Amino acid sequence: xxxxxxxxxxxxxxxxxxxxxxxxxxxxxxxxxxxxxxxxxxxxxxxxxxxxxxxxxxxxxxxxxxxxxxxxxxxxxxxxxxxxxxxxxxxxxxxxxxxxxxxxxxxxxxxxxxxxxxxxxxxxxxxxxxxxxxxxxxxxxxxxxxxxxxxxxxxxxxxxxxxxxxxxxxxxxxxxxxxxxxx
Length: 183
Fold this sequence. Notes:
The chain is mainly alpha-helical. The chain has a domain at 66-183. The chain has seven helices and no strands. The chain has helices at residues 5-12, 16-35, 44-71, 73-94, 102-123, 131-160, 165-169. Helix 2 packs antiparallel against helix 3 (44-71), helix 3 (44-71) runs antiparallel to helix 4 (73-94) and helix 3 (44-71) runs antiparallel to helix 6. The longest helix is centred in the last third of the chain and has 30 residues, at 131-160. Residues 171-183 have low confidence and may be disordered.
């Protein structure tokens, strides 16, 4: 459902701040519902990582929503997705050292080149485009770069904080002290 979110936001309409507030309230309601099934095991480590992660998410989302208003969803989403894939991949390569073999580099660099070409062709405008559209595209790309910083940060913080997916989504332990891996 995450990929359809921009289309829903544009269909519903509203200002950027209203759309962000709606998404945040939806996430809060979902989280409160989860508390009925999973009681979290709170730690300062989890709280701090979650707080920083939430700040990065909020920044990334509000700037991404703003880019939808500037250049439209059909132009912003492929560029945003491509930049996020590139950013997270670069973190995986240089910070987490996930590429270890020659074939990792061959396949990975090939995939990154395809993604970069896709982003370039999505962002490319013909020379005949008027300067107003070109100015909007430049502003939209700048806002998308800011969004990407937030979105990539949001994605790598859990890994940097050594939290697994269940820690991030549903931090809980069962009555025996073991981690729960589902409902």
